[in-house]
Fold this protein.
Amino acid sequence: MNTGPVVDIRLDRRQPLGSQIERRLRALVQSRTLPVGSKLPSTRTLAADLGVSRGVVVAAYAQLAGEGYIELRRSAAPVVAVQGRVPDDVRVDPDLPVARARSTCLPDFALFPRTSWVAAVRAAVGHAQGGDFSYGEPFGTGALRLSLAPFLARTRGVVAAPDRTGIFAGSSQALLVVASVLRSLGAQRIGVEDPGHRWRTATLASSGLEVVPIRVDDEGVRVDELPDVAAVVVSPDHQFPLGVALSARRRRALVDWASERDRLVIEHDFDGYYRYDQASSGALQALAPEHVVYVGSASALLAPALRLGWAVLPARLVEPVAQELFTTAIGGPRLTQLALAEFISRGHLDRHLRRTAAAFKRRRTALLEALEEHLPEAVPTGTAGGLFLSVRLPADIAEPALVRAARRRGVALDGINEHASSPHPPGLAIGFAAAPEPTLRRGAKLLGAAREDVLAA
């Protein structure tokens, strides 16, 4: 049986073996020493070549597959994938957010339902009429809006109708378009959670609105501290990076604030589909559909590469949002929208959500157990949901130093204060959905070692 070529990997037995294997193979792919389509040794063969346990190689291959560098195939040798290739003329600044996109808020790309997605694409193209290859409606193809609206109503309790449901190139574009429309209607300021995702904050700021931070505590955003803003952006079910859910009391208070003052709440529901201990609270939007914009995306459900997001809008915003979409993009990726419509209508998305929820629950449990062993002073906070785990650190731990030490050891995480406008108690947001259990356990061990590095410095 062909088990692949011999690969030049030299290991320092004093350093984590799996990380070294990952780094070396990643570098070989990026330099094109291993070109696209190259076969790799089987896990058993490479483990024998290197004199390590097969589990170390299995975990390394799984991580590289999750990043898109290699493709794992049943009963066949792993191969170098197209996604991992970096052209020679591209220079990536490691400080750019996209360069660390493997980190905290993403699903496992290895679980992407390739077979059913290909079937949906084939069906969409096969059923497409001549007009479907034109620009189409700026607000999104009717087929997707007709299938997506009832899906959102059934799975998240959103009060959704096709004529209120717009399609965007990801939730970031949805946020930017809605914020830009608000500014064109006279708004000047918009509130954001603090700490809150810095990518989202940057997107909103690019609309020209003044971004106003609002404190978040264990019950979610402090509604009693809302300033004079036209709108506020929140993630009620699993806030990033603290992982907290908006309490029932504050959900009601936030809706009352919007309704009584004729203001807007923008509900950014990026990973609220995943709850592991109880049923989700459902969408905040259902409490006040004319005062809450519901924003979601396929990035956490399937993959960011699809670049599909959606927003369920109050009636008064439908026309200006559609006009903004027309003037800025004319139309979205129509064939991809048709494919997602097929994917939903055939039940593939429901099956994928059940499958990934079970896998992510196991991974979260594995990470919690490993942290208890290797970093017991890290206290889990927030709800048992989403794609990342938030932990609180003792006050005497220097969060920036620990984050730097962990990243040097190859651990992907975020510091809470990286997303805060003012000092916040130290903590970490650690992604668990994108990595298999062995990688998570090894990552927790490396995080414990990073803690020792900080103490020894």
